[in-house]
């Protein structure tokens, strides 16, 4: 990034100057020059985004749920990383789900109408060239890139567009019941502070979370895209394991990240590149440890598409391409548990069924190996297997890696599976390096296998079936990739 921004705008209003910038001011002659001589870049005849018909249907469902109420859904603002640099922006899931727009500072407002609601998307317009904003402001288009005009946005998203800078004042004057999705835009919340209640706003957030439980056709397609790119990212990693051995887990992290950025928007969450005993740390994202031949690599990673749908896949791979006897024993137990879990995913099944099925298999093995005293029913009732299984066997997946998290317990964990739901099935066994209750040969071994499962009308479809799971197939796959 250049080390100076602009100092002041022209005549209309000053734009904050960066301290220690090299230019003390703007001459009248330069200001006049920068106002003119620019081509018309307005885009016309744009095609609506691919999900426009789906976002319209989602807004209609939201409108039907809250008749007669003003609904405000912000995208969020840039967050400072340090000094004058920001984190990459990611729009709020609620806003992206309802609009398809992914730019900062946007706000969707549904105004009650005679029938239903009238939707408006509030956005930052093109940078002002008359007052110099486009080249003097740190967020001007010359610095950060071109934005769509409001007219272009209307064509793309199928929603009337207005200048978001005028919205806070308008919201302050609003009357009637209002709900806002909190936590994304402080200025919007401040404008509504005397018009909203936490309880009513939470109802809006919960509804939007539960609306995402069942994916539409577009969403299922995006999830498959995310998984397909993730499969290629795992292949990339296997091909460079020798370089990871020469460096660290960070080589694995960087390798997968390259695939995510080339084919998608980003990684969907911090990649877990856990080699050796690090595999026993569930969310090992430091990724700074050694990669050694003879150890296992637990890679938990997912590509996020340009529409913000993410994959979430885990494979536990032998760094040298071959499982040892004890590694295979533990891996095969996790594989069998996952097979039982996946088989339990079908329409009409309880959400908990796949977790219970997988946990039973793992518990049977732990009892069989003499690591915990049976019978199996007693162990499950007391939850004693959790010392080594640790976590739940899966979660909903979508625009968040742990999607629909605000949904009510009765519609999620205690709910029933329906066609269009997408969830992970990810049992694991983790024997900590300092666990004196297990034989030494078990210690430091962690195994998780995770796939993304779409509930279909007649059962389920494994979106990540392109990656081998069975231990012998994993070994053959790795050998083929290494040439």
From TrEMBL:
The keyword tRNA-binding does not apply. Residues 1-22 are annotated as: Disordered. Signal peptide: none annotated. It catalyses: Release of any N-terminal amino acid, including proline, that is linked to proline, even from a dipeptide or tripeptide. Gene3D superfamilies: Creatinase/methionine aminopeptidase superfamily, Creatinase/prolidase N-terminal domain. Residues 49-189 form the Aminopeptidase P N-terminal domain. Keywords: Aminopeptidase, Hydrolase, Manganese, Metal-binding, Protease. GO terms for biological process: proteolysis. InterPro entries: Aminopep_P_N (IPR007865), Creatin/AminoP/Spt16_N (IPR029149), Creatinase/aminopeptidase-like (IPR036005), Pept_M24 (IPR000994), Peptidase_M24B_aminopep-P_CS (IPR001131), X-Pro_dipept-like (IPR052433). SUPFAM superfamilies: Creatinase/aminopeptidase (SSF55920), Creatinase/prolidase N-terminal domain (SSF53092). It holds the Pfam family Peptidase_M24. One of its GO terms (cellular component) is cytosol. Its EC number is 3.4.11.9. Its cofactor is Mn(2+). GO terms for molecular function: manganese ion binding; metalloaminopeptidase activity. Residues 1-12 have a biased composition (Acidic residues). Belongs to the peptidase M24B family. PANTHER family: XAA-PRO AMINOPEPTIDASE 3 (PTHR43226). This is Xaa-Pro aminopeptidase. It comes from Streptomyces triticiradicis.
């Amino acid at each position: 990034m250049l080390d100076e921004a602009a100092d002041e705008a022209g005549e209309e209003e000053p734009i904050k100057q960066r301290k220690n910038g090299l230019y003390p001011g703007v001459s009248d002659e330069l200001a006049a020059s920068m106002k003119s001589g620019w081509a018309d870049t307005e885009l016309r005849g744009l095609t609506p985004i691919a999900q426009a018909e789906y976002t319209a249907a989602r807004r209609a469902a939201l409108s039907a749920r809250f008749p007669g109420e003003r609904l405000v859904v912000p995208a969020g603002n840039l967050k400072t990383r340090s000094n004058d640099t920001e984190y990459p922006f990611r729009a709020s899931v609620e806003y992206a789900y309802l609009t398809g727009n992914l730019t900062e500072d946007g706000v969707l407002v549904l105004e009650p109408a005679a029938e239903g609601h009238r939707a408006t998307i509030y956005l930052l317009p093109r940078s002002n060239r008359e007052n110099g904003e486009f080249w003097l402001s740190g967020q001007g288009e010359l610095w950060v890139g071109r934005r769509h005009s409001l007219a272009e946005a209307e064509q793309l998203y199928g929603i009337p567009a207005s200048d978001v800078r005028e919205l806070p004042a308008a919201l302050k004057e609003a009357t009637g019941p209002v709900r806002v999705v909190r936590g994304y835009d402080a200025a919007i919340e401040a404008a509504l502070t005397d018009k909203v209640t936490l309880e009513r706003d939470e109802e809006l957030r919960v509804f939007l979370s539960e609306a995402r439980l069942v994916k539409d056709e577009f969403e299922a397609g995006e999830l498959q895209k995310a998984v397909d790119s993730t499969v290629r990212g795992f292949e990339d990693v296997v091909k460079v394991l020798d370089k990871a051995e020469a460096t660290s887990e960070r080589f694995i992290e960087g390798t997968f990240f390259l695939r995510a950025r080339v084919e998608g928007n980003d990684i969907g969450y911090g990649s877990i590149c856990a080699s050796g005993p690090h595999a026993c740390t569930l969310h090992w994202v430091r990724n700074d440890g050694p990669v050694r031949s003879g150890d296992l690599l637990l890679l938990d990673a997912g590509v996020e598409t340009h529409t913000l749908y993410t994959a979430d896949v885990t494979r536990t791979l032998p760094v040298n391409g071959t499982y040892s006897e004890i590694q295979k024993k533990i891996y095969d137990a996790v594989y069998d548990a996952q097979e039982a879990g996946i088989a339990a995913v079908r329409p009409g099944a309880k959400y908990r069924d796949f977790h219970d099925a997988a946990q039973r298999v793992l518990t049977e093995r732990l009892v069989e190996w003499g690591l915990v005293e049976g019978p199996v029913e007693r162990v499950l009732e007391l939850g004693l297997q959790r010392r080594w299984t640790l976590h739940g066997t899966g979660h909903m997946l979508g625009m968040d890696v742990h999607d629909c998290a605000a949904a009510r317990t009765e519609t999620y964990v205690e709910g029933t599976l329906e066609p269009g739901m997408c969830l992970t099935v990810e049992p694991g066994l983790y024997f900590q390096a300092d666990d004196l209750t297990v034989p030494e040969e078990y210690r430091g071994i962690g195994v998780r296998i995770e796939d993304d499962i779409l509930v279909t009308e007649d059962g389920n479809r494994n979106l990540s079936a392109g990656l081998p799971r069975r231990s012998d197939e994993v070994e053959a796959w790795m050998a083929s990739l290494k040439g």
